[in-house]
Write a structure and sequence with these properties.
Elements: H1 5-12, H2 14-28, H3 38-57, H4 65-87, H5 89-92, H6 94-97, H7 106-132, H8 144-168, H9 172-186, H10 202-205, H11 208-220, H12 228-252
Helix pairs in contact: 2-7, 3-4, 3-7, 4-7, 4-8, 4-9, 4-11, 7-8, 8-11, 8-12, 11-12
Amino acid sequence: MIDLSFIYNFFKYTELLKQLVIRDLKVKYRHSILGILWSILNPLLTMVVISIVFSNLFRFDIENFAVYFMSASLLFSFFSEATTVAMTSVIGGASLISKVYIPKYLFPLSKCLSSFVHLILSFAALLIIMFSTGIKINYTGFAIPLIFVLILVFSIGISLILSSVSVFFRDMTHLYSVLTLMLMYMTPIFYPEGIVPEKFKFIHDFNPLFYYVESFREIILEQRLPSLDYVIICLIMSISALIIGLYVFYKRQDKFILHL
């Protein structure tokens, strides 16, 4: 069985976790004139470029393309950023791990939480676009935190797996960049889901990010609560990823020091 002492350590080291998150945010915006405002400006500028390219040049017939794109881009960007930076977090914390006792899972967890703060700030950019295009959030908006929490938990689980594997297999960072690129094209971020041929529908069926993105879009674009089937799938994937991530991390963490 997994030692549940990490639950005690979580509360014991809450202040340390907070400081790690603050440090990550400070490092992210160090030497930046606009600082944290880039969390809002960056998705806005990206949206402008993508909208010009795909709504005009490629002429995808998608209503409210800017919101369609940004709603998916925010979730995918969060997952990609969180898991990518968390993957090398244990390696990056080698100097601390070798000197004092710190629960090692705090490193990938802090990376995911700092990326989550960035997601919340970037959500403001989506709200700006929604209001400027006449889209208002109704009562279904109360379901948005649920989707955010589910993809956060999923990202933490995947991050725990990646961060533990990368300690022993450093090439994982290069392989994962290819995987995230593949996931980006497998997820209907800037193209309509309907253009995918029937024989390739499995691309979405087996893409975990598809269900988070579509659930979020149902709230934002269709102004209704997300499909119960999709929410259940997201819940199962998030819990499963977290359990597997904790198990893999726990089984390997005692050997980290030998490879750092």
